[in-house]
Amino acid sequence: MKTLRVLSLGAGVQSTALALMSHYGEIEPFDSIIFADTGWEPGKVYEQLAALQELMPIKIVKAGDVRDFGKTERKEGQTRFASIPLWIKNSKGKIAPMRRQCTREYKIDPIEKYIRRELVGLAHRQWWPKKELLLEVNLGISTDEMQRVAQDSRKKWKINRFPLIELGMSRDDCISYLKDRGFTTHRSACIGCPYRSNSEWAMINEESEEWASAVRFDTQIRHILPDAECFLHKSGIPLNQVDLSDTLNDSSLLDECSGLCSN
After folding, report:
1. Between 195 and which of 7, 35, 229, 253 could a Cys-Cys bridge form, CB atoms 3.0 to 4.6 Å apart?
2. 95 and 142 in contact (C-beta within 8 Å)?
3. Quick one: angle between helices 14-23 and 43-53, nearest 10?
4. What is the pLDDT of residue 74?
5. 3-class secondary structure, 69
6. Residues 143, 162: contact at Cβ < 8 Å?
7. Residues 59, 6: contact at Cβ < 8 Å?
8. Which of 25-34, 139-148, 170-179 has the lowest mean pLDDT?
9. Ramachandran region of residue 242, left (φ > 0), alpha (ψ -120 to 50) or beta?
10. Can you say whether the dihedral through the CA atoms of 193, 68, 66, 103 is positive or negative?
11. CA 198 to CA 175: how far, in whole Å?
């Protein structure tokens, strides 16, 4: 059986290290390196992606902009937000996150669509040739993120692989590796990801366009639901009013996503 080896590139710390290791022949090379663009990545991530593109071919796929609203089929004229886990505050003041589907819709699905149609040449809904071809998806998850490992892809013809764990490399090891090769380090996660901690929000310069875009977006989503308010910050407070210096018991939820988002 032939194996098709792809790297799901987030252009953050760990997956960038894997891309370079493949380029320099330090690990088995990938047949394809694929970056799924949500349309709202930090500028430093796009800069890192561009630097990698100068060294190796990278396929960029896109399912749209994660900030866009879309029609649903539940009721005529009803809209929903694009599956981002916004924080919802009901009339009683209770706060809870929306269901997260953005990783599937804006990362996993466009990558799989490209693999099926462009790399394998399958038509829409055509069965995968599981007796002839095994898909190996390599993810940038390091030894300090073992909780993110999901070995079972739920498809017999597809396996997830974690080269950094096999090599015993931590995130700090990846940072050192990148610095030795002249690469800066920046975590890959959407600018307005609601899973950010205060310290992670504070890393976005409040005088930058990225911060301004997050604040604008936070304002726009406030009343997308008829019976509750929506927020980017888990406190249920408008983003530009949050005290980001308060980091006591303020944990990050970015690691709740798979290695497709923030690596």
Report:
1. 253
2. no
3. 10
4. 45
5. strand
6. no
7. no
8. 139-148
9. beta
10. positive
11. 23
Contact indicator for 210, 201 with CB cutoff of 8 Å? no
Chain CA centroid to CA 172, Å: 20
Long-range contacts of the stretch 211-214 (C-beta < 8 A, 24+): 213/40, 214/239
Mean pLDDT of the chain: 90
Type of residue at 174: C
The fraction of the chain above a pLDDT of 70, given in percent, is 90
CATH T-level assignment (fold) for domain 2-256: Rossmann fold (3.40.50)
Q: Catalogue the E-assigned strands of the chain.
A: 2-9, 32-36, 59-61, 69-71, 79-81, 87-89, 95-97, 133-138, 158-161, 229-231
Residue 231 has pLDDT above 50, yes or no: yes
Residues across the chain: 263
Q: Residue 157 is which amino acid?
A: W
Whether the predicted pLDDT of 226 surpasses 90: no
Alpha helices in the chain (DSSP H): 14-23, 43-53, 102-103, 109-114, 163-167, 171-180, 198-202, 209-220
pLDDT range class, residue 149, cuts 50, 70, 90: confident
